[in-house]
Amino acid sequence: MKKSPLFWKVSTLMGCILLLLVPLFMVSNLISERASYRDDVEDTLRQSTSGPQQLTGPLIAIPVTEIYYKFEDNVKVEHKRSFLHFLLPESLVVDGNQQVESRSIGIYDGQIWSTDLKLKAQFNTDKLDELKGETITLGQPFIAVGVGDARGIGAVKVSKVNDETLTVEPGSGISGQQAGIHIPLTWETLNAKNIDLEMSLNLNGTGSFSVVPVGRNSELTLRSNWPHPGFMGDYLPSKREISESGFQAHWQSSWFANNLESQFSAIEPPEFRSVPAFSVTVATPADQYQLTDRAIKYAILLIALTFMAFFVYETMTHLRLHPMQYLLVGLSLVLFYLVLLALSEHVGFTPAWIIASLVGAMMNGVYLQAVLKGWKRSVLFVVALLGLDGVMWFLLRSEDSALLLGSGVLAIALFAVMYLTRHFDWYSLSQVKQSVPKGEPDDDALRIWK
């Protein structure tokens, strides 16, 4: 079998494909490297402005100092502990208007956003009677609002409690949760049975925006000019509308679903970043690096189909192709992805795909005209290559149907090979060629296979 020309032909083609894996691996590494540069731009914007933001609150926080006694070695010992008691709103309504802006650093883009927020919260103070006692001392209460990154806090335009304008101070006032703002309150204010809070502030950030539904009933309505929202986190919006001009979404939750009241009633409050929240991120659609990386995963399929077409052509005709000719055509297919990557950074993915396909078609068209001995055959293969490029483009754009389309392409290719070679005698390729008598020229003497 090892003396069979068919065996050596197939083995050599497999070797050519393995050799082409080396430049494909290099191009794949280059894609990852360029993508990391893009990620560095996003990190730079985050460091220069502010990061993801999570709005927690408003909450009424009351400092509590409690004296309690424990028996230690049969001796009654006095102990003291201090903590914050939180009063969560009965209802919380947040209305936001988000404007997303793209910033460029070199050839790379990133997004920052600015959100104007209006908060309305209603508190019921009936449960404050439970804090009164001879061993309990209460400090000055305040309203706390936590955020993810204090650098993103813009102007606080309105802060009214029961129609009384109050002063806003920096910092959340909660130990371990420093980012945010707080509003000092008086006990005269808390004597009212119901407390209505109205606030308006501007919050800037990058990446995600979240609101913790701390109210017994909480609602968030957010409008944005960004057409690519990424709804994530613990709750999906109950309503959403997405168009080319932006999106609008509405979330709703209650203590029955999130159990936040019990979490904040503990002596040690939870980490603000660990509690469930309504979340949306300014998602970047599949960019040129993701698409190019996805495309190069189909490179072996493209090369294998091209080599299969040449192999069938050799089988059906008397023309023979040298392994170097296979390699050169394969390298032109690898070069397609490098050209695609370079152009997509400047003109976008789809125009880059078209240009790279035409460049590859021109190179192979001129080369195959000489290899295949005629323009007609060359044009036929070039059209087939352009057709494969078109199919690959649809595979990338149709993620949900990629497996179906890919399976269909392979089935059609296999059927074409089976149909074209249905009358071919494969045993004829396995026969060792008879030696040429001395004195007669052998045109195939320098060929790797016959």
UniProtKB/TrEMBL annotation:
<dbReference type="Pfam" id="PF06123">
    <property type="entry name" value="CreD"/>
</dbReference>
<keyword id="KW-0812">Transmembrane</keyword>
<keyword id="KW-0472">Membrane</keyword>
<protein>
    <submittedName>
        <fullName>Cell envelope integrity protein CreD</fullName>
    </submittedName>
</protein>
<feature type="transmembrane region" description="Helical">
    <location>
        <begin position="295"/>
        <end position="313"/>
    </location>
</feature>
<dbReference type="GO" id="GO:0005886">
    <property type="term" value="C:plasma membrane"/>
</dbReference>
<feature type="transmembrane region" description="Helical">
    <location>
        <begin position="349"/>
        <end position="367"/>
    </location>
</feature>
<feature type="transmembrane region" description="Helical">
    <location>
        <begin position="379"/>
        <end position="396"/>
    </location>
</feature>
<feature type="transmembrane region" description="Helical">
    <location>
        <begin position="325"/>
        <end position="343"/>
    </location>
</feature>
<keyword id="KW-1133">Transmembrane helix</keyword>
<feature type="transmembrane region" description="Helical">
    <location>
        <begin position="402"/>
        <end position="421"/>
    </location>
</feature>
<dbReference type="InterPro" id="IPR010364">
    <property type="entry name" value="Uncharacterised_IM_CreD"/>
</dbReference>
